[in-house]
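Researcher: Sequence recovery benchmark, item below. Answer with residues only.
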């Protein structure tokens, strides 16, 4: 493995820090922290530069909160200057770590992502009759700092970078010498990199051609269940001995034609469906978002923005009927309908709309159909966003 050096100075270059600020503030321009940083932009950027040059950064200022979607997690939100720092680091180090990744690792990588991972899983489901799905128990909290730094040292020659990343690791411990804070950009990339050597072992030593990983969720595809059982025994030993990780209970070994539960979908060789848990989560969020709009907490633009992100997720499954029925049942307020008889009113409104094909010609809708979240057009009388019009056409 070729080691790469002379990276540290690139982190505190002015253009890199400016780019890091733009990335850290994306979608958060009105947040008080962002406004405060921007009001004294040059001073704050120079403070980051100075701290990096002197290797005297004051870091580890987290605020903590719990999310329960889909499972309970403790999120560590770094202060905004630290988020800028994290982006500046990963602008330089991210591409270096990416060179170690195998083709079929899909988290935290450009031109990859969960939807491409699902397509790749469907491809393998067509090629192999059996699959073995595994994930790591309490993955972020189980990552060993010492092992991670040794892995980084094998790839990054610049010791200033390794020391800086080590300093970030020291700001959080789930137990002595272990754990990455969920919520840090650096944590996502480092957690993905931590399993890189495992990926190469699977592909090069175990000779598994049908293999795919998204963070700590990974799937092996083989010709027989016996081969996968042999892989399982070896995997457990490798993870325990080399990375101090343990598999989560609920290991799934099954035929590909039965459907693989993966990243919120059930992937079959010839179709992709939503998992029941994904449907429930979609409905729960839609009701919550509609309530926020009805109570005046959200504008229609904000409502549409959040719902579009959800629809972009379920659009990658065969879910047109589910979308239509769910939005008819719960997505009525954003279209100006009374909740008393939404279906009758919705149909009446639809008859007054232009044909669906003309609506699909809107550029922003073309982007949405490709699975992009590029935002919505200005809210005017002729181009008003609504949930029902947005997805009423089959």
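Model:
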């Amino acid at each position: 493995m070729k080691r790469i050096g002379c990276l540290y100075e690139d982190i505190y270059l002015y253009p890199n820090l400016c780019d890091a600020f733009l990335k850290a503030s994306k979608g958060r321009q009105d947040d008080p922290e962002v406004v405060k940083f921007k009001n004294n932009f040059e001073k704050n950027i120079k403070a980051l530069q100075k701290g990096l040059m002197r290797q005297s950064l004051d870091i580890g200022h987290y605020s903590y909160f719990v999310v329960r979607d889909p499972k309970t997690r403790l999120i560590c939100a770094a202060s905004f200057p630290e988020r800028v720092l994290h982006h500046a680091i990963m602008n330089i180090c991210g591409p270096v770590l990416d060179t170690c990744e195998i083709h079929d690792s899909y988290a935290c990588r450009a031109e990859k992502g969960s939807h491409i991972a699902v397509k790749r899983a469907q491809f393998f489901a067509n090629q192999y009759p059996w699959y073995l799905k595994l994930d790591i128990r309490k993955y972020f909290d189980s990552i060993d700092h010492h092992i991670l730094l040794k892995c980084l040292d094998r790839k990054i020659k610049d010791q200033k970078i390794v020391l800086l990343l080590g300093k970030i690791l020291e700001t959080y411990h789930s137990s002595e010498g272990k754990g990455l804070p969920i919520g840090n950009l650096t944590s996502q990339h480092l957690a993905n990199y931590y399993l890189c050597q495992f990926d190469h072992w699977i592909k090069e030593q175990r000779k598994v051609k049908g293999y795919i990983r998204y963070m700590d969720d990974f799937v092996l595809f083989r010709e027989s269940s016996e081969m996968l059982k042999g892989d399982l025994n070896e995997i457990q030993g490798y993870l325990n001995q080399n990375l101090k990780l343990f598999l989560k209970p609920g290991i799934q070994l099954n035929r590909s034609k039965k459907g693989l539960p993966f990243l919120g979908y059930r992937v079959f060789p010839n179709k992709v469906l939503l998992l029941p848990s994904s449907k429930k989560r979609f409905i729960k969020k839609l009701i919550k978002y509609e309530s926020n709009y009805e109570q005046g907490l959200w504008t229609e633009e904000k409502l549409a923005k959040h719902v579009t992100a959800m629809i972009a997720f379920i659009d990658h499954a065969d879910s047109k009927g589910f979308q239509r029925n769910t939005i008819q049942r719960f997505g009525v307020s954003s279209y100006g309908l009374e909740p008393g008889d939404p279906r009758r009113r919705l149909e009446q409104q639809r008859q007054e709309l232009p044909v669906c094909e003309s609506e699909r010609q809107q550029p922003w809708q073309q982007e949405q159909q490709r699975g992009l979240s590029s935002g919505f057009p200005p809210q005017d009388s002729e181009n008003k966003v609504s949930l029902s019009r947005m997805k009423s056409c089959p």
